[in-house]
Here is the input.
Amino acid sequence: MWAARPLRRGECLALSMGTTFRKEGDRYIARLGAEIRNSKLSLEFPYPVELTRAIDTYISNVRPILARANRVEEIKTDALWLSREGQRISAYNVYHRVRKLTLTHLGRDLCPHLIRDCAATSIATSAPEDVGITRNILGHATLRMSQQYYNQANMVSALQRLHPIILALTETPSDAIAKPRPRNLCRVATTSHRSRRRQ
Here is the structure.
């Protein structure tokens, strides 16, 4: 869900059953008001229908178990994401759980904010002509941040072009590479020594 709709941590934790998060038809919809986002803009979006079954399973099977962790019969919280104690999970726990799970399943720990960066950079790299949609996906108020990811994608592209050049240089015979003259190295060392003595 986070990869498909890379929310900020606070926005993700604000998802509540029946209010900011509900099922409509064959998919789930999130609605976050400006007051929740600490922004001038509200945010509303659907989750991909491909995630509906997984979300249904979590809500019907997993969430009730977590909600009754304190051995209560009635679920007293409407928070979508719960901790093992049956309460709304904290931002601290989300941060560490996401890092642990991504390390286990992806081989690298990714913090929640980095997932947002990955989503935006992927768009800018794969479809630079559509980089403007990162504003809506990430919920930014302006296109300034979108331009940042576009520039980051350009850097990635430049590094990809640099890689074969470096490989070609490493395959050059060692005797074909000009070696520095010893006298130059000595001159640098002497100059450096004199500078230290003057200080």
